[in-house]
Design brief:
It comes from Zhongshania guokunii. One of its GO terms (molecular function) is peptidyl-prolyl cis-trans isomerase activity. Its EC number is 5.2.1.8. Keywords: Chaperone, Isomerase, Periplasm, Repeat, Rotamase, Signal. The protein is of the alpha+beta class. It folds into four domains: about 160 residues, Orthogonal Bundle (Triger factor/SurA peptide-binding fold); about 60 residues, no CATH class; about 100 residues, Chitinase A, domain 3 (Roll); about 100 residues, Chitinase A, domain 3, CATH 3.10.50. The chain contains 15 helices and 13 strands. The protein has a four-stranded antiparallel beta sheet. A four-stranded antiparallel beta sheet has the order 10-9-12-11. Strands 4-3-13 form a three-stranded antiparallel beta sheet, sandwiched between helices. A hairpin with a 2-residue loop joins strand 11 and strand 12. Helix 3 packs across helix 6. The chain starts with a helix and ends with a strand.
């Protein structure tokens, strides 16, 4: 039945593509073809109008970039190959029911408008002014989102990254550069001439110490009143900092002001405005829970009643761990007595996270609902954890993944292209 429907869908598209306009000037009928099929791809077709439209769009982008366009026949062949590959992926998406919800699409369009410093209304107006259709652009964005989702779903599962790969990357020169801490400094220089006398040098040092103390007290300094040179060093990785500042920077926290640092050119004061990747402290919570799910044999009301009963039993002294083992329907944690281990903010569903954050260590929260069911949550303890090493590992993992993704995507695209039935008509 599925094949029959797909065949009929293709037939319908072919028939639609070959609609005739009948013109009858002076009673003489003339037949004009509006479109034709340029390729058959599995259970679908590609029309000449689709190909011409994409070529026109690509040519516009080439002209805007100022680059030289390839020969027309080469461009037409390459664009047709691109459309064939897209068509194969869209058919895969259709088979697996990949859909982009309106809210998700609206958010994506709004992000694109924001990236161009426009509101959504301004974005629509700009498209209209350029002769483009907002609905067509919106449809193209949705198509690209579908393609991305299909690619990620099929390619990510092909990528394996070992701990050894991560460690090797972190030890490499590139790894040290890419994962190095970043600092944003403001810089004050109290200059000293190379031929300055000892007294002049001491005077400059005293001025530097006074300015450093003034800045630590939160008072502002400026070039004119303090007769100094102030500059913004911008964001720099630790490996890019002047060697004079490297050791000092490593010991500073955000908003710290250094003591005067002496060099041949004078005395320097640096203030750390912001930092990234220096030391990442995260508040973690260790909690246990009992999950209860409404079912055909236990209504929502009965589930809530049981959750409240179990909470009361735990409050009266029964072992929460034993109750979780007996009653919890969370396969992952029930055998561990409901213990979820250490979690960081954002790791758990919002309803659970909110209830857990409201609960002090040793306390048991009132039953709370999530998409998974009803939870009875007991907070065991909290801690501030340094996750700097984990963060560097994650950066390394992301970099390695990005490289492997490009290679695996190319392999996967070649595979689905070779397995598809493609009949080029031009």
């Amino acid at each position: 039945m599925a094949t029959y429907l797909m065949n009929n869908m293709r037939l319908l598209k072919v028939l639609t593509a070959t609609l005739l306009i009948v013109l009858a000037p002076l009673a003489q009928a003339e037949t004009k073809w509006l479109d034709k099929v340029v390729a058959i791809v599995d259970d679908d077709i590609i029309l000449a109008s689709e190909l011409d439209s994409r070529i026109e769009s690509i040519m516009t982008n080439i002209e805007r970039s100022g680059k030289e366009a390839p020969p027309p026949e080469q461009l037409r062949k390459e664009v047709l190959d691109l459309l064939v590959l897209e068509n194969i992926q869209l058919q895969i998406a259709n088979r697996y029911g990949v859909r982009i919800e309106d809210e998700e699409l609206n958010a994506a369009v709004a992000r694109i408008a924001g990236n161009n410093n426009m509101s959504l209304a301004q974005f629509q107006q700009a498209l209209t002014a350029s002769g483009a259709s907002y609905l067509a652009v919106r449809e193209q964005i949705a198509k690209e989102m579908v393609l991305q989702r299909v690619q990620m779903g099929n390619v990510n599962q092909r990528i394996q990254i070992s701990d050894q790969e991560i460690q090797s990357f972190l030890k490499s020169e590139e790894g040290r550069q890419r994962t190095a801490p970043e600092y944003h400094f403001s810089h004050v220089l109290i200059p000293v001439d190379s031929d300055a006398s000892p007294a002049q040098r001491q005077q400059a040092e005293a001025k530097a110490k006074a300015l450093s103390a003034k800045m630590r007290d939160g008072k502002s300094v400026d070039n004119a009143n303090d007769a100094i040179s102030i500059s913004d060093l911008g964001w720099r990785k630790s490996t890019e900092l002047p060697s004079l500042f490297t050791e000092v920077a490593a010991k500073m926290s955000d908003f710290d002001v250094s003591e005067p640092i002496q060099s041949a050119s004078g005395f320097h004061i640096i203030k750390l405005l912001e930092s990234r990747g220096v030391k990442q402290m995260v508040k973690q919570t260790r909690a246990s829970h009992i999950l209860l799910k409404p079912s055909a044999i236990r209504s929502e009301a009965q589930t809530i009643a049981l959750a409240k009963e179990l909470r009361q039993r735990a409050l009266k002294g029964e072992s929460f761990r034993d109750l979780a083992k007996e009653y919890s329907e969370d396969i992952g944690s029930a055998q561990e007595g409901g213990d979820l281990g250490w979690t960081t903010p954002g790791q758990l569903v919002p309803q659970f996270q909110k209830a857990m954050d409201e609960t002090s260590p040793g306390e048991i929260h009132e039953p709370v609902a999530s998409d998974y069911g009803w939870h009875v949550i007991k907070v065991i303890e909290r801690r501030n954890q340094d996750v700097t090493k984990d963060m560097r590992k994650q950066i390394a993992r992301n970099i390695i993944h990005e490289r492997k993704y490009a290679d695996e995507l190319d392999i996967w695209l070649r595979k689905i292209r070779s397995e598809a039935f493609v009949d080029i008509k031009i």
